[in-house]
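can u do me a favor
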């Protein structure tokens, strides 16, 4: 099993509150992250630090706007203090993102310190989400 598969299938911890998410983003750091939107091309190089920072800023705003609850619980990481692998679930396609499921939904986005592998997306993100993702790289 590859390093990516081990992380993807391994134990992850949930960021439970919005306050925890704010603190969590401060521990992510900017360099060395592969940014992968499920359903888009798998990145072959880590994103630039500025791109990662912009992604974090925009995904944070999107999650807070679209997941209108008093809790977060849709961002998961291998280590909440020093993450190397982060799954971010799309608020518009949650299904059963936690707990037991024989067919859990794929996350919307993955941030990984190791090169990601293609995850066959059964659910294709709507065109609005795809435009949102592509806008990150249009500069």
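np, heres the sequence
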């Amino acid at each position: 099993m590859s390093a990516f598969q081990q992380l993807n299938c391994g134990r992850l911890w949930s960021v439970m509150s919005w306050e925890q998410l704010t603190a969590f983003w401060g521990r992510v750091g900017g360099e060395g992250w592969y940014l992968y939107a499920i359903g888009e091309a798998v990145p072959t190089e880590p994103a630039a630090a500025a791109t990662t920072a912009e992604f974090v800023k925009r995904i944070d705003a999107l999650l807070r706007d679209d997941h209108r609850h008093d809790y977060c619980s849709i961002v998961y990481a291998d280590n909440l203090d020093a993450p190397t692998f982060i799954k971010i679930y799309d608020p518009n396609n949650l299904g059963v993102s936690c707990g037991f499921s024989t067919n859990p939904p794929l996350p919307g986005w993955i941030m990984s310190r190791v090169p990601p592998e293609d995850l066959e997306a059964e659910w294709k993100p709507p065109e609005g989400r795809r435009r949102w993702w592509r806008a990150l790289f249009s500069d």
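The mean pLDDT is 85. hope that helps!!
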